[in-house]
Specification:
about 180 residues, mainly beta, Neuraminidase, Laminin, four-stranded antiparallel beta sheet, about 40% strand, LDLR_classB_rpt, Wnt receptor activity, Wnt-protein binding
Length: about 180
Amino acid sequence: KLFFTDYGNAAKVERCDMDGMNRTWIVDSKIEQPTALALDLINKYVYWVDIYLDSVEVVDYQGRKRHTIIKGRQIRHLRGLAVFENYLYTVNSDNLSILQINRYNGTDVQSLARLDNAKEIRVYQKRTQTAVRSHACEVDPYGMLGGCSHICLLSSTYKARTCRCRTGFILGSDGRSCK
């Protein structure tokens, strides 16, 4: 799945399949300007920062179990969001600090370091990566991902895929080759 935020005409947090199909709103009320998003892949939670409402909130992948982690003026300047173990990590663009926020109580907030011009944050750790199983976009005997000549996107399950073409090409009638 692909998770993303939108604060156009109607602010929301959404999810869809990797090929863009099955687009679903998971948060569409009491939300104004969601600007950063992080996933807890193990427990299947979505965290986001709303800089207009000055809050960090969380829901499960279906949009249930919503609650506020932290609220207040210090949220207004947060950019980027990552989750690892018991904490959320974010960048405060006002003072260029990296913040660590306890994701269960929100009261334990610590400044870890200062970084000039940081706009995003990521946690890279083996435990944050899910095990990869055999999937529809694996390389076929001809060296093509999922049998697609240009781009292979996973669809509704790891067993399904959609082929797409690079700009300037169109998908052939076979659904795999680009012309």
